[in-house]
Amino acid sequence: MKKLVLAVAGAAMLGAFAVPTVSIDAINRDGGGEVASVDLAIDGVDDEAYLFAAYGLGAGSADSLSGWDTVEQIAVLSSSDTTANFTVPSGWGTTVFNMRFFIASEKPYDSALDYIETSDSATIYLGFTAGPNMVSRMKFRYTYNNGGALYGYVPNGSDDYNDYRLFSYGNAVFFDIPPANSRISCAFSLNTDYEWELGNNYIKDLASGDMLALGAVQTFSRPATLDPAVSEMMLFGIADDRGRVYWLDIYDNDADPDDLQLVHKFRPVLKNGVAGLYD
């Protein structure tokens, strides 16, 4: 029997002044002694609220749903609700070690989507700027390419001197990186799903671990005053490139590849009939 500890459990009220509480009332085990579920005690819900479980290999935020590997809605609560039960996810003690419970005054989104694509939305601004130690991991598919930008930014229109972007033309994908003053490239196919890591001067396939591009195929003499973090990162920034994005994770810093820190975890969602990304 594995000896496990329910290491992290707590509650936070998101987006409200009143503070309901949720606590673990009992830990239930199966016939083999493994943790199977937890009984939760709920108090102080005055109006409709949402109960979530957040869990993963590592811990996310203590006061929001960001940074967790998985966020799962347990129940919609009313003032009469005082208890709930949650079945512990598979992988507890092997791939899942941290869990926390949250009560939110409103649901952050209506439903999850498998992907978001160019036709779903106009340009999506991601709320952060690129830096020299940023690593992006994403699953995506190109459906049309003509030298635009599926991901990144182009602060001066099509000025190659200042952009940080993933774009495609012909049978190749190009990645411009201002911190390295370079452009790297590798082959690809339209209408094919890829899971890649984009770092400072490299492209890596996440499934195989193979380096698809390493080092510049073209360099630029960029202005000495160029700050690589001058514009907000975005999806679907230039319509000449079109496609799907299934997920996007942003890490810092690739100066130490063995110690990447997850800072954004974007997932496609639908809220009020509009497709977007939830971080």
Structural overview:
This protein is an all-beta fold and 279 residues long. Helix content is 0%, strand content 51%. The chain has no helices and 23 strands. The chain has strands at 13-14, 21-29, 35-43, 49-56, 70-77, 83-87, 98-104, 111-112, 116-117, 124-129, 134-144, 149-153, 164-169, 172-177, 182-187, 193-199, 202-205, 211-214, 218-219, 232-238, 242-252, 261-271, 274-278. The strands form 4 sheets. Strands 8, 9, 11, 16, 17, 18, 21, 22 and 23 form a 9-stranded antiparallel sheet that branches. The two termini are 36 Å apart.
Describe the structure concisely for a colleague.
This protein is an all-beta fold and 279 residues long. The chain is built from no helices and 23 strands.
Q: Would you count the extended β strands for me?
A: 23
Global Rg: 22 Å
Q: Largest sheet at a glance?
A: 9 strands, antiparallel
Name the assembly state.
Answer: single chain
Measured distance between first and last alpha carbons: 36 Å
Tell me what portion of residues adopts beta-strand conformation: over 45%
**Structural class estimated from helices and strands:** mainly beta
Which geometry do the CA atoms define? elongated
In helices, the fraction of residues equals under 10%
* Number of contiguous helices: 0
Order of helix and strand elements from N to C terminus: EEEEEEEEEEEEEEEEEEEEEEE
Low-confidence sequence ranges: 1-17
